[in-house]
Amino acid sequence: MSQPLPQTVKGDSASERLQALGLKLPVLAGTTYLVPHRTVGSTIHLSGQLPFKDGELLGRGVVGRDVELETAQELARHAALNALAAAVQAVGDLDRVRIVQMLVFVASTPDFGEQSQVANAASELLIEVLGENGRHARTAIGVAGLPLNTPVEIQVICTAV
């Protein structure tokens, strides 16, 4: 059985913890081809999220060649923040979000091998903000390329509590 991570960010609610981190949820919009989320029964599938901030992609390139591990981790945190925004669109309140599964795609060189370290940054953000509701099953994989040449894309499945 896994040990819970200590709650390091203070706040009574997920919104307070997000604010304590100096973060705010972005506004997401759908496109002609996709929506930020789709609910099937009690499961909410979030579209893959890229590390956009204020409409700007924060990084491009391949991890292990053009992008350092620490930069990829920050990009993963931004993508996770965008996933939280999509989840809130679906359930209406950050305190109602429970993350079930996260899939982290890392555009990386074949010998990089630290995709899980990139994903840890996103997992940490979810746990910092949501506490136990942020703990999740996870897969992190390296891929040859991602949309817009971004180094990281995150897909999340969640539910409302």
From TrEMBL:
InterPro entries in UniProt: Endoribo_LPSP/chorism_mut-like, RutC-like_sf
Q: Which residues form the Endoribonuclease L-PSP/chorismate mutase-like domain?
A: 17-150
Protein's name in the database? RidA family protein
Pfam families (alphabetical)? YjgF_endoribonc (PF14588)
Q: Give the CDD domains listed for this entry.
A: YjgF_YER057c_UK114_like_1
